[in-house]
Amino acid sequence: xxxxxxxxxxxxxxxxxxxxxxxxxxxxxxxxxxxxxxxxxxxxxxxxxxxxxxxxxxxxxxxxxxxxxxxxxxxxxxxxxxxxxxxxxxxxxxxxxxxxxxxxxxxxxxxxxxxxxxxxxxxxxxxxxxxxxxxxxxxxxxxxxxxxxxxxxxxxxxxxxxxxxxxxxxxxxxxxxxxxxxxxxxxxxxxxxxxxxxxxxxxxxxxxxxxxxxxxxxxxxxxxxxxxxxxxxxxxxxxxxxxxxxxxxxxxxxxxxxxxxxxxxxxxxxxxxxxxxxxxxxxxxxxxxxxxxxxxxxxxxxxxxxxxxxxxxxxxxxxxxxxxxxxxxxxxxxxxxxxxxxxxxxxxxxxxxxxxxxxxxxxxxxxxxxxxxxxxxxxxxxxxxxxxxxxxxxxxxxxxxxxxxxxxxxxxxxxxxxxxxxxxxxxxxxxxxxxxxxxxxxxxxxxxxxxxxxx
Length: 455
Known about the structure:
Elements: H1 2-9, E1 54-58, H2 64-74, E2 79-83, H3 89-101, E3 108-112, H4 116-120, H5 133-136, H6 142-147, E4 149-150, E5 153-154, E6 157-169, H7 170-175, H8 184-196, E7 203-204, H9 210-220, E8 225-227, E9 234-237, H10 242-256, E10 260-261, H11 268-275, E11 281-285, H12 288-294, E12 306-310, E13 323-331, H13 338-347, H14 352-360, H15 369-372, H16 375-378, H17 390-401, H18 411-426, H19 432-449, E14 453-454
Parallel strand pairs: 1-2, 1-3, 7-10, 9-14
Antiparallel strand pairs: 3-13, 4-5, 6-11, 6-12, 6-13, 8-9
Organism: Sphaerisporangium melleum
Signal peptide: 1-19
Region (Disordered): 23-42
C-alpha cells in the first residue's frame, strides 16, 4: 500500500491553487540553497546566536524572514535555519523526494493541513503530542487542532485558516435591491432576480476549486472520509451520500440556468471578471481579501464596492461553519532532535509581533487565539470592505464555529477526481447525482488499488 502511495504523493502539484492559506504565498522564491534539508549552512536568514543548536525549516509565507528573525531573537534555546524551496506543490515534491531517499528533509516543514495525512501515512511526520502539546493546547480551537491531527495524534501546529463566507458587490446588490441571502434557497432566488433583470452572474462554479465544493458538501452534512491510523489499511469513503449529491445538483442547476458562471478561478479571466463586475458574489475564505487586493481587485473604480456576509446556510436555524485552506508547521521524521524541532513548531509564528504582522498585512487569518480574540483584530475596520468590521461580523464567528474535518491520505487524487466530475457537470454530460456516483466508484477503486479496505 505505502509503496503505491509514495508514487502518488510524488505527483503533488500546483493543484494547491494558491494554497488557500496565504494570499501572497506564491511570491516567495527559493534562496540560500535549493534543497536545504538538514543542512544548516544554507540558511536564507542570518543566525546571530551561533552557540545554540539549530533546527532547519522549510516554509513559504511571504513574511517568513520576519517570523524567523522574531523567533531567533526571542529564543535562547534553539535557532531556526530557514530555506524557501518553493510554495505548496513545489515544496511537497522536494519533500516527497526526501521521504523516498530517507534523507534531505528539514527538521520542520510548513504544510497545508489537508496534506498532513498524505505524509503521515508514510511515517514522514512526527506525533508532537508528547513534546509540549498540553502547554499550548488552549492557544487554538478544537477545530484547528482536529485539522492537524490524524486520529488522536497531532502532526502539526496550526497557523492560519480559511473560515468561509460570501463576499459580494455592494453596487450590484444595491442596483438590483438584493439583501445578502441567509440560505442557499435565497441565494438562488436572488440569482434568478438579477438574471431576470439582465444583470451579471451571481457567482461562479469553477471546476478548479474542488476544495470549495468539498467544504460546501460538508456544510450540507456530508462526511467524505473517516480514517483512523490505528487501522491504517481501512478507510471510510462516502462521496455519493444524499448531501453530496444535493450540493452538486444545486450548483450544477445554477450553472445550467445561467445563474452562475463556470470560469476557473485564480485565472486572469476570472479576476478580470471580478474587477469588471461580472460576478455579484464570491464564495471564498478569510484569506480572499488579501488575495484579491494583491490581484488588483478593490482598487481604482472598484474601491469601496465590496462587502462580506456570512456563508449562506442550508438551514438558517442550524448554521454549519466550514473552512477552505490553512497551514501548519510539522516536525519531520528526519528531524535530528524531534523534541527541539517541536519547540520550534510550537513557537514559530506564535509570538505577538509575527501574528500581528501576518494579519495586518493580510498574509494570514490567524488561528492562534491570542490574535484571533485580540480587540485589535476583532474590531479591525477592513479597508477592502470599505471599513466594514468583517472579522467581528463574519470571519471570527465562522472560525469559532468550525469543528474541523477528517482528510484522506490521498487527498490530491480525490481533489483531481472531483475536479473531473465537476467539469462533467458543467459540460452537461452528467447530473450532480450521477457525478457523485462516478466519483465514489473512482475513488473507492483507487483506494483499493493502494491496498485499503474500504468501509
